[in-house]
Every structure is written in C-alpha cells, then in structure tokens.
Design brief:
It is built from 11 helices and 9 strands. The protein is of the alpha/beta class and 399 residues long. The protein has a single domain, classed as Rossmann fold (3-Layer(aba) Sandwich), CATH 3.40.50. Helix 5 packs across helix 6. The longest helix has 23 residues. It is globular.
Length: 399
C-alpha cells in the first residue's frame, strides 16, 4: 500500500507541475514575439531551390541532417537482421469481419535484439491487398486491445475495418520506454554508440525507427498494400509519426494529431509549450544538442514547417483541439502554410485558407489537410473519421 501511495503522490506532483506550466504559458497572441522563419527553399550555402531536383538532391537531405543533429537524433538505417513471427492469427475476429494477426518483429544488431509487438486487423470483406493505418501508441496498451474486450476511440479498429482499411498498432514501450531512465532499454541497445553522442538517437526517434520496421514487415505481407500505408500518432506519438514520414518515404500518408511543440507547431512563436519546458520535463525525447535552444528558439537552424516539408509531395494531415492551446493550433496551421511552397515545387496547390479555419471546420480534401476539433487534447472518433475520408480521397485520386 505504501508503494501505491508514493506512486500516486509522485504522479500528482508531475501532473501538478505540468498544470502549473500550462497556467504560466503564453496563451496570448499579442505576446507572440516577432520572428523570421528560416527559408525552407534556401540552402545553408544560400542557394535558392527552384525545382524538385535541387530539393531532393540537395536541400531535403541537408534539412534531414539538421533535424537529426539539432533535435531528434540520428536515425540508424542498418541492422544485422530482422525476423517476423506470427504469434496469433484469428480469421474470424470482430465477429467474422476481420482477420487478426499478432506479429513479433525482432530486429538484431550489435549482439542484441529488440522485439516489436504488432497488432493488425485486416478486413475480410475487402479485396486484398488493402491499405493500412499504423498507430504509434503512446498511451496504455489496452487502447489497442487485440481481444476487443476494451474498445477505445483512441484506436477505433472496427471503424477502420468497416471502412475497408487494415488497422495496425505498435506500442512505444517496445522501442523506448517513455521514461527518462528506462528509455535506453529498447532500440538503443542495438546502437550503443548513440547513447553518448550529442546528436544521438533518443526516444522520439526510436519510436519513428520502429514504425519503419513495421513498414519492412508490411512489404512481406500479401494482405497489406505497402504502398498505401498511413502513419498516425497523437501528441508525443504525433511527433514520432511526423518524424517517421519525414525519414521514411515509404509511408504514403502522414497524420500528426495534436503534436504541438517539436511536432507540427512552429517553435519560434513561443506560444504554449516551449523548448525549455519540453526538454526539462521530457529530457529523454530529444538529443543533447536540442538543449542549446532552451529559451533560444531563434537560434535553431530549422523550424517545424521544414519537417512538414520533408513529407512532400505525400499528403499530410495535422490537427489540433480547441481547448489544447498548449499545442498551439495557430502555430500548427502556420507551419502547414509555410510548407506550401515545397508542395508547389511538385505542382501541388494548397487548399488551405489564408487564416486558420474555425473549430470543427476541417480541410480534408487537400494534400495539406487540417482541422481544429472542439474539445481536449485527445485522439477521437471525430479525428479518425476525417482521417479515413482524407485517405480515401487521395487513394482514389491516385488510382
């Protein structure tokens, strides 16, 4: 009992600190400082990017390296081997509507291995192979309960299956436990050199790395159309889904839900959560170099419109919630707006209006999609219903 009480007090203390942080945050647009965003279409050597060839061969890899070195850490691409084991299969899941596969993805490197537990439902009524959504789950595991004893809006698997999509999930704790001490117990055991590097991999990049290992598996599963996979994440998971899509161009769509600071929101606005606060509260999320930008956002060589731009020309959907000012809805919308010029290089015209749309006025049928949902910081059925419409629109358009 004593241990439970101590744990409860500790949790209350943590949430109390976070609540105080939010209370003291800048939620006043009049207090947003004047800022100048770095030009996404100008290289560090001051060369203007005028076409997709220069973007893809020069500016895009340059930006990826800047994000890796200054914020997220390196993303190792090589490993010794990978093994897939179907640990459970049920062809009559969801009362016969879906096939359940539980797959153990084991990755080997440096005489160590990491095991990623993939949960996957495939609609039985759809023609195979089917497109899929992959959620990077940053909440409790039972939000993605394979038995469907618990059903959560956070991962409404039945809704996706009924719409003809496969729905998959992995949990962040398999890759890097979300703890400032224990985060080293997952993927980083495969790459120990990253632990002491100032630009080394940390938790967010480990989670994104794991999503790419699922893509490795999808390429082998004849039930899944690996060319039509959307990576999805909420909050810290939304930071990881955005990074995963930027790093791995095999993802056809990117969905970043309420991802806020160091996700889809501009850092230089200094609105809501700031870099110094996220680094203090979650020091294990981003690399050591990122601490140099605490209370020093304008010194960053990048901002989040550039990370969004790295997803181009693939469609991207970013969201906010009306009561979640901590994640800066306006800053997220402006990051999308400032990524438009990169999509324009590919001849893609943005459908975003000049100013942020009203609450519950989604912009879905666009390559840069956005909504600000009424309510709290969460991932809901409303969000998922829009993501389905977004994916269906783009997959039909590109047939």
């Amino acid at each position: 009992m004593k241990r439970v009480i101590i744990g409860f007090v500790l949790m209350a203390s943590i949430y109390g600190v976070q609540a105080q942080d939010q209370k003291e945050a800048n939620y006043d647009e009049a207090k947003v400082p004047k800022y100048v965003l770095p030009d996404v279409l100008k290289t560090t050597s001051n060369v203007e990017v005028k076409n997709t060839r220069t973007w893809e061969n020069s500016r895009r890899p340059e930006l990826l390296k800047l994000f890796e070195n200054n914020i997220y850490g390196q993303m190792p691409k090589k490993y010794s081997s990978i093994k897939y084991t179907v640990t459970k299969e049920d062809a009559t899941a969801m009362n016969g509507k879906a096939k359940l596969k539980q797959v153990m993805i084991e990755v080997f490197n440096n005489n160590n291995s990491v095991r990623i537990n993939l949960i996957l439902f495939i609609p039985n009524a759809a023609n195979k192979p089917v497109p899929a959504f992959l959620l990077i789950n940053n909440r409790e595991r039972d939000n993605t309960d394979p038995t469907r004893t618990k059903k959560s809006e956070f991962w409404p698997a039945e809704m996706l299956v009924d719409s003809g999509y496969a729905i998959a999930a992995i949990h962040v704790s398999d890759l890097a436990p979300d703890d400032k001490e224990k985060y080293v117990e997952g993927v980083l055991q495969l790459y120990p050199e990253q632990l002491t590097a100032a630009n080394g991999m940390k938790a967010i990049s480990a989670w994104a790395w794991g999503a790419s290992r699922v893509m490795d598996y999808f390429a082998t599963d004849t039930d899944i159309d690996a060319k039509r996979v959307a990576v999805v994440g909420h909050s810290r998971g939304g930071k990881a889904s955005l990074l995963a899509a930027a790093e791995d161009q095999r993802f056809a769509l990117c969905i970043t839900n309420c991802s806020g600071n160091t996700g889809a929101a501009l850092a230089r606005r200094q609105f809501g959560e700031r870099i110094n606060r996220i680094n203090a509260t979650f020091p294990h999320w981003f690399n050591t170099n990122y601490k140099k930008y605490n209370n020093n956002e304008n010194a960053l060589p990048v901002d989040q419109h550039m990370l969004i731009s790295l997803v181009a020309p693939r469609p991207l959907y970013a969201t906010n919630a009306s009561k979640d000012l901590w994640a800066d809805p306006t800053g997220t919308f402006l990051a999308l707006k400032n990524a438009e010029k990169v999509y324009a290089l590919y001849g893609i015209k943005s459908n975003l209006p000049a100013n942020p749309p009203g609450v519950n006025q989604p912009i879905i049928y666009a390559s840069l999609a956005y909504h600000n949902r009424e309510g709290e910081h969460n991932l809901t059925a409303y969000d998922w219903s829009n993501f389905i419409r977004f994916a269906t629109y783009h997959y039909k358009k590109n047939k």
